[in-house]
Amino acid sequence: MSEDLFASIDALLARPKPVEDLPVPAERERLRKAGEYTQEELAAALKTRRETIVRWEAGTTEPRPPKREIYIRFLATLALQHGTVEPSEWLRRAQAAGLVRPADQPPSAPASDASAAAVVPAPAVVPAPASVAPAAAPPVPAVPTVFGGGDQAVVELDRTAGGELVAGPSAPCVRCGRLTPYRAQGRPMHVGGWCTPDTGVAGLLQTAPAAAAALVETVTADLPAPAPDAAPTASTAPAPGPANTPRRVASSRPASPAQAPKAPAKKTPARKQAATAEGPSDWEQAAAARFPLGPLAVLDVAPTGRGLVAYLADGTPAPTAPVGRTLADVVEWALEARLGSPRLHRHGKDGDALIVISDAALAELGLPPLGRDEKKDFVQRLGALPKTHKTVKALEKAGWLLTQRGLGPWARVYRTPEDGKRQCVQLCIPAWGALASGGWTIPDGLDAPGQARLLGTYATRVLTPRGSTAVSGLELVTALRPPTRAVRTEAGWTSGAVEGSRPKDAFDPAPPEVPDVHPLAQDREPGAELVTEAWDWHRELTDDEKRTALYAVGLDVNMAFLAAAGRLSLPLSGPVHELNPVFDKTIPGSWLVDLSHVDTDPLLPSPFSADGERPTGPAWYSTVKVAYAVELGATVRPLEGWLRYEHGPYLDPWHKRLRAAYLDTMAALGVPGDLADTDPLAFLDAMANLKATGDPAELAVLTAIKQTAKGTVGKFRERPRGHGYKPGERWAALERPTWDPLMRALVIDTATVNLHRKLRKMAADTGLHAFAVLSDCAVFAAPGPGALDILTKPDGTLTTSLRLGVSPGMVKFEGSRPMPEIAELLADGANPARHMKAGGVVSADE
Fold it and tell me: Where are the domains positioned within the chain?
C-alpha cells in the first residue's frame, strides 16, 4: 500500500509543470499602466468590456483564444519596452510563438519593487546610415540621480509623506521627452521611471486612445515572424560601444539632420494634446484606475444559500464578497474592493461606492423588513431605523457614522477621514422603498444580477444613483461643476473658485423670484412675483378646423427642458437691483416690464404667460422672455431689474451628459439618432412599439434619465417639505448653492420660447396652428390620425419647424383622437393635450 502511494507521489513530482504563457496578474496591470493605457482603451481595442480586463488583471478569469494570443502580444510588446519584474519565461514563449518580433526587442531588466523604484531601460545608440558621415553623439539631457549601472538604472520617484507619487502639471520627461505629470528629484519623469521611445511599436503605443486598437489590428494581421537566426539589419543592430556603457533605446530625435535618418517628428505639447483630445486625460485615467470593480454592487444570498454574493455593474459576481454578516462588514468590504466611480471633473470628487441590498440579503444582515410595527419592522413613515436599533449601534461601535438622514432606504455611512482619504459608502435598500418611487421604475421580478446591470447602466451613462432621480440629477450638476478647487499659495494650500461654477456658499435670489412661502416673499406686494410655469392652454376650433379636420394629432418635444439648458447663460452670483435699467439680453435676471403691447398670433398661445393669454400690464419676466419680445419687434423699457453680472453656461456639461445618456439608451432600444432622417415611417413604428418590444431594463433606464432631467430643474426651486412648516421660515434646500428659482425660470422660459418659435414656423410652413398645448405637447387639427398628416408640407416634403427625431428638442408622435372626442373635451373646458396619449392621460414625463 505504502509503495503504491510513494509511486503515485513520485509520478506527480515527475509530471512536467505547465509553462504559463501569461505574466502574473500584478504584472499584467503594471505593464498596461507603464504603457499609459486605461482599461477602457484596452477593452475597446479587444472589443470586450472593461470589467473583463479587470478580471484578467486580477487573475479571477483568463482570456480565451483568439483574444488570449492578442492580449499576450500586447503585454509582450510592453514588456520589451518597459522591462519585466518577474522571470520572463512567458515572454520567451511569446517570442518563440512569433507573437513579438526580434526587431521590437530592446533589452529588459528586472526590478525588485516596481511601486517604489523602477528599472529604466537604457537607450541604445542608433547608427547613422552609410551615406551620412558619423558625427559626435548628442548630449544626454540631465536626469535625476540613479542607482546601479550597466543595463539597469533605478530611479526613485518623488513621493509625499504618505507614500503617494508627487504629480504636477504635465511636462516633457527628461529621458524621452514625452509628457508626464510625475517627478523624480523635482524633474519630470514617467510613472515608475519608465520611458517609451517614439518609434516602432513603441511609437504606436503612445498614440492613445487609438493606440491599443491599432496595436490589436497589427497583431491580428497575418504577419509572419522573422527567422530566429536572422541577422540584425543596419537599422536595428545596436552599435558597438565601450564596455559597461549603458545602452539607450533607439530615439526618434536625431542629434542633427546629418546624423540620423529622418524620423517622425516628436510630438510637441500642442500635438500631444491634439492626439489625446478624444481620449481620457491623465487625471481621468488616474481616477478610473482607483475603482477597478466599478461603481456599485448588489448584495444577494449566494446560490448555495450560504453567505453573500455581490453582483457588479455588469451583472457578474465580484471576485470576493463580504465574509461577515453585519452591515459594518459590508461597508468594510466595499472599501477594500475599491468600489466607486471616478470624478467627472478635474477638480471634483470621486463617487462613493453604492451597495444595493436585496430582499434576501436584508434578512441575512439582520435588517428588518418593511412593516408597521416600530419594534420589529422598518416603518416607512419614520424614514429611518431608530438610533437604538442593534444595527445602528453595531455600526457606531465599529467606528462608522450615519448622516442626519439615518439608516433608511438611502443611507450614507462614513468614517472621519484620515490623511485626507474619504471613507464613505452609500446604501440602497429596495425593500424599504428606495427604488419604488422618485423616478425609478424597476421591472417586477428583476433578479439581483439584472438589478445590478440596470443601475450600473444608469451609473455609467449618468451618475451612480444617490437617491431619487432628481437628487441624482442635482448631484450630477455639482459633479460636473464643482464649486471649489485646491489652490497653492505661499502660505500653503487653500480653496479657490472653479471657473464657470457657482460659489460654494448659497446666496438668496431676488424677491420677485422666490415662492410665496420664502422669507423674502412675506412683504411682497400682490402680483409682484415672477410667474414661470409650462404652458397649459387651449382654444376653440376655427370653422375651417371643424370642417376639414377628422382627427386631433399630438406631437411631443423630446426632453424639452434638457434641450433648453444647453449653452443657456445662467447666474453665477447674487442679484443686483437696478431702477430703469437698459435691457441687455446677455445678462440673466428678472425684469419688470410691460409686454402687453407685443403682437403675437391670436391662434397660438402667448409666450409671455403660463395660461397663454395676452398680458394686461407690467409684470416680472426673465431675460429669455424679454429678449423674445425684442425678437418679435417690440420696444421694451424695463422699470426695474434684478440682474446677475456674473453668468455663464452653467448647465451645459449637465446637458451634454444627459443628452448622450438619452441617445445611447434610445439606440440600445433600437432607435438610433438618424433613423427619423433616413426612414420616418420606420422611426414612427419603432417608437410605437418601444414599450412592447424594448428591453424592460433599458426602458427603466430611459424613464430614469427623463425624470433626472425634469427633476433637476424642479430642484432649483424646491419647496419646503414635511408637516409643521410655517411660511416665512427658512428650509434646508435654501442652503444649497444650486437653489436658485431664476435658473428654473430661465430653463422653462427657454423651452417655452423655443416651442413658440417652432409653432410660428410650423404655421408658416404648413398653415396649421396648434389649438392646445400642455408643457411640450402641441395638438393640431389634422385630416388623418398620423404624425405625417401634419408634418407634411404642401410640396410633399417634411417640415423642419417641428422636426421628427429622437434627439432632445425634436418631436415624436404623442397620439391622436377622433375630432368628436376632442369637441367633447373642449365643451367640458378640458385641455385636449392632456388626453392625447393612449389611455386618456398625459404621459408620465409631462
Answer: 25-127+194-223+266-275, 290-484, 536-563+743-835
